[in-house]
Amino acid sequence: MEKLKNYIYGEWVEGNGNGIPLYNAVNGEQVAISDTEGLNFEQALDYGRTIGYKNLSSMTFYDRGEMLKKVALYLLERKKKYYDLSYKTGATHVDSWVDIEGGFGTFFTYSGLAKRMLPNTPFWVDGETQKISANGTFLGTHILTPSEGVSVQINAYNFPVWGMLEKLSTSLLAGVPSIVKPSPYGSYLTNAVFQDMIESGILPEGAVQLVCGEPGNILDYIQDGDSVLFTGSATTGRKLKSLPSIAGNAVRFNMEADSLNCSILGLDAKPGTPEFDLFIKEVRNEMTTKAGQKCTAIRRIIVPENLIGDVQNALSKALDQTKIGNPLSRETRMGSLVGKQQYDEVLRKVNLLKAETELVYDGQHELVDANYENGAFMSPKLFLNDAPFTKNISHDVEAFGPVSTLMPYKDAEEAAALAKRGKGSLVGSIISHDDNFVAETSWKMASQHGRIFVLNRDNAKESTGHGSPLPTLMHGGPGRAGGGEEMGGLGGLHFFLQKTAIQGSPDTLTAITKIYQQGAEKKFSDKHPFQKYFEDVEVGDSLETAGRTVTDADIVNFSNVSWDHFYAHTDATSLTGTIFDKTVAHGYFILSAAAGLFVSGKKGPVIANYGLENCSFFKPVYAGDTITVYLTAKEKINRGVKGRNIPSGVVKWLVEVVNQRDEVVCVATILTLVAKHSPFIDLNLKNIQKTLNGLTDSTQPSWGKMSPQQMIEHLEHGVLVSLGEPEADKCFTPEEQLEKWQDSLYNHRKMPKDFPAPFLAEDEKLLELRHKNLEAAKISFMDNLKRFSIYYKENPQAEHMNFVFGKLNKEMWELMHKKHFTHHFEQFGLI
Hey, which residues are catalytic here? Predict the structure, then answer.
């Protein structure tokens, strides 16, 4: 039987012991062996701290976000084999989807957050700058940098893929290398996904390592700066946390433990209401998804005492309809436990529950295409605790399988009290349409819960369910649940980052943070900042505008245009007792007038106003006052764009408006979208002619079989088609892919060198020479390119068919020609 290899110190290494046999949870056949015997864990940790940390921490947050996206896309293309392995763990297709594609989705989510909200630097400025001196020459702020160590991530058996990827999403994005230690059960699935992550070549050396089996003494070598993330039982977690290597050092420890989560049925949710039906469905799903092997599953079903019988009957019927058996069968809705050992452990807990509470439902015992002897199957089991304030077993013992307990309550006070008897839970849910009941219950139980999920008829269609942790929200909980926090959007990165206070002068803080600080030196030049592409803008680039004297007419006109007739702007007789001496200019007029002073009217790389932040007005501006504006590039934010958007970044500009006495009257931050340099040749006739001057009959292509003249005539044919001469009669791209292809015209990715033009196979005449020589072809090409420019000025709404991209308008044809010309000019070494 094949052993699973471990990936440490950059190599695939096989253990030299007997290892642990791993079995198919459905039929009992052996799948693999996990073995870590003989591995040098000390070397693995040191490798991560040195090679891994150096490579990851030197990347920017933005680039690490892009890395996550590339990995997720690579894995998504190979998902079928992961599903094939997942079925062997006892998971159904739905179970596997949550685990596999839910894991990929976490990578995608964090990639998106990084590209929208994180800087293109290896550090992250946290919070606002604090002015800590009277004159503003001494400032303070905070930066976050990757904690200098390695993260050991110990995962549970229930989610072999998601469990790994949800931890890696934050640690990799934070820039901290990781060692993944999955549970042996199902580790063959983790191993397959990990192999592809390595084979993709996307992750830098040392970023991730894999230990597939027993952890051995790996935690003995943990030291200051390292971190440990543990998912599993609270008992094991507490033991690990108390290890001398962890407790005695500055080791960050995060625990996400199983918990006795509850779901509360509202007093209003009687049979016949949508909420009652939603409650039954939600509880059934949480008992049967992953065969109840979820740390977020519902273990305690808290129901109004007068509805216990109704819920028991309805839930029993719903569970009866849940077919159990082989996950590969279409009928199956619930698979098996992960293995026989886990079955025995769940059965032991079931017997403990039986000692104090009544088993009121034991499920259907028929299996679909499977049997109890070979597989680790268990029917759903429902208990009833008729005295939940005195019988504590339901609040103390968790059977980690398809097992849950019904318990009654009288009012909202009792419901919240029962919820809290779990002594700390990952999630609690309330199913009710009574907002007062929900509000009273939720805030009372919140102190013992990491997440509260409210479900009713209003959100049911879009709800993600009680048991689904989301990347943008915290996953963790207090007390028994471990006191840890994972994910939670960008907050999930803080566990891996060192927060450092930075103090210094405005110039010093600007240099460190790459964000302009008020009072720092401004950089003035003759070129207007709005005429610079994103890559060319530098933090500190500034503009001092001319002055503008505000008049009474300005104030009156702005009142009429804006309909803002607030008395301070329009009624001089109402100013007694106010802060104003006379009618005052509108704050938004000052901001608008400032924009009028600092914008550049000439078309340039600035695409649009993107937003406004932190606008404050400090002194009134009256008629007769003269305002001047200082515009300064404050911060640059790289930005991923999709679809038909021009590749661009966001530039934040500090706007400082001063009056004739040099008093600051307004400060704001405006955001603009600024285009990035295009890598494609511009359709400037002089530039293209100059480029073609370097093409001769002896010029050889770097790829392909075209001659220089064939290439020019091929480009000319494309220009003629864009003029409708002739009108292309068809597009070779399938309709369902056309939008994607048209969107690609807008990005900055170059055309592939090996792209087979679909029309050439049918029309080889395109490569037959139509001009007597290369020079004649060049002249004709340039003449038609000039015609193209004139044609779309005279016919701006015209559209013509392209063989690959479909019907294109003026803008799209220009983008198409820029890419196409660049592709072939590079083919012949002209650019």
Answer: 256, 295
